[in-house]
Amino acid sequence: MKTLDRPVKPGGVIGIIGGGQLGRMLAMAAARLGLKTCIYNDENHAPAFQVTPLQVAAAYDDRNTLTGFAEICDAITFEFENLPVESIAFLESLKPVRPGSAALAITQDRFSEKSFVASLGLKTAPFAEVNSEAEARAALGKIGGPGIIKTRRFGYDGKGQAKVANADEAAKAMATFKGAPSILEGYVDFAFEASVVAARSADGSFAAYDPPENIHENHILRRSIVPGRLTAAQADEARQIARKIADSLQYVGVFAVELFVARDGSLLVNEIAPRVHNSGHWTIEACACSQFEQHIRAVAGWPLGDTVRHTDAVMENVIGAEADAWETLARSGALHLYGKQEAKLGRKMGHVTRLKQKT
Ligand code: AMP
Fold first, then answer.
1. pLDDT for the residue 256
2. Closest ligand 1 atom, residue 214 Cα
3. Mind listing the pLDDT tens digit for each residue in 83-105?
4. Taking the CB of the first residue and of the last residue of the chain, which one, N or C, has fewer CB atoms within 10 A?
5. Atom 5 (ligand 1): residue with closest C-alpha?
6. 312 C-alpha vs ligand 1 centroid, how far in Å?
7. Which contiguous run of DSSP H or E holds residue 348?
8. What is the pTM for the complete model shown?
9. Which ligand 1 atom is the nearest neighbour of the CA of 188?
10. Which residue, by CA, sits nearest to atom 7 of ligand 1?
11. What residues does ligand 1 touch, defined as CB less than 6 Å away?
12. Is the dihedral of CA 93, 96, 102, 108 positive or negative?
């Protein structure tokens, strides 16, 4: 495994695997620090290709192209977790990759992720591994309904998920997922959702942003509000949860921990995103150092930036055809559009952040 002996100097190249909006905003933050980016994406068109000087379009498991990509990069990262872990491990043998394949392997699989979180003594919804209709029935009987069946891998924005009330529905969901390895989770009657976006650098320093409250609609993040309804004690606990996770993964870079705030006030970990996160977009305008700059700093071996928040903020996603109202949106706050050609249903086209004087 290659480690970074000294920081990547201005003019150096950060490789980013994945060319979506997160890669795009990472590339823009890197440019501000005088660093170049090379975006690796598996399709020819990508939002991040529009803002980077170097680009590669090839399959994520194409070893020849991965080798060429590694040659031009000083350090490498990724902007989404549904990548072949073998490719990240391969890149790691050539250049420093942050975060590394070990963190990716744990967090891209819901069962290993929840087992890891539980092993740290942190709370989660009750969960069980299910691989067949019979196991789904048995798990629902044990955990009790209602529950949610989630495929272990490749799920996002509610894809690969089904809410189930009873054993028959659990079995039916497994049939719909064609028996894909899954987990059954007990349904949490939470008060609200929140997240904590934080960063850890290779020397172990840690910095977390104020945890926002998150509102989802149709399984997609609608808005993040900071400050939300978390108490100061809950916000502290959220930061401690993030630190515990980051330290035990020896994590380098920005990550997010999605949380359920239970009605009794306790915090349950829903999932870990090993990357910059939609619920951290407000940091671009409201904080001294955005989550994107922070991630680039950590990957490049620079000192972490200041996570202090100057203003209150509400970040709202612009989804599907809502982007047609770009003029109205542009008047209403700091508008970010991701340069996506087609406004498909449920597709994140941009976001708008509205600032308010700090309360
Ligand atoms: P996930 O893909 O695991 O982040 O789930 C997407 C969304 O589904 C979450 O943000 C919650 O709104 C909801 N959800 C997921 N798991 C549960 C659960 N165990 N109990 C209640 N709601 C859940």
1. 98
2. 10
3. 999 999 999 999 999 999 999 99
4. C
5. 158
6. 26
7. strand 348-356
8. 0.97
9. 20
10. 219
11. 125, 148, 155, 158, 185, 187-188, 193, 216, 219, 258, 270-271
12. negative
Q: How far apart are CA 48 and CA 41, in angstroms?
A: 9
In whole angstroms, give the CA distance from residue 210 to residue 46. Answer: 31
Q: How far is the CA of 270 from the centre of ligand 1 (A)?
A: 7
Nearest to 54 by CA among 81, 85, 26, 14: 14
Pairing of β 312-319 and β 348-356: antiparallel
Counting ligand 1 atoms within 8 A of each CB, the residue from 270, 271, 272, 277 with the most, and so the one to mutate, is: 270
For residue 298, what are the contacts with CB-CB under 8 A and spacing of at least 6?
Answer: 98, 199, 200, 201, 202, 252, 253, 254, 304
Q: Measured in Å, how far apart are the chain's first and last C-alpha atoms? A: 46
Tell me the DSSP string of 215-255. EEETTEEEEEEES-S--HHHHHHHHHHHHHHHHHHT--EEE
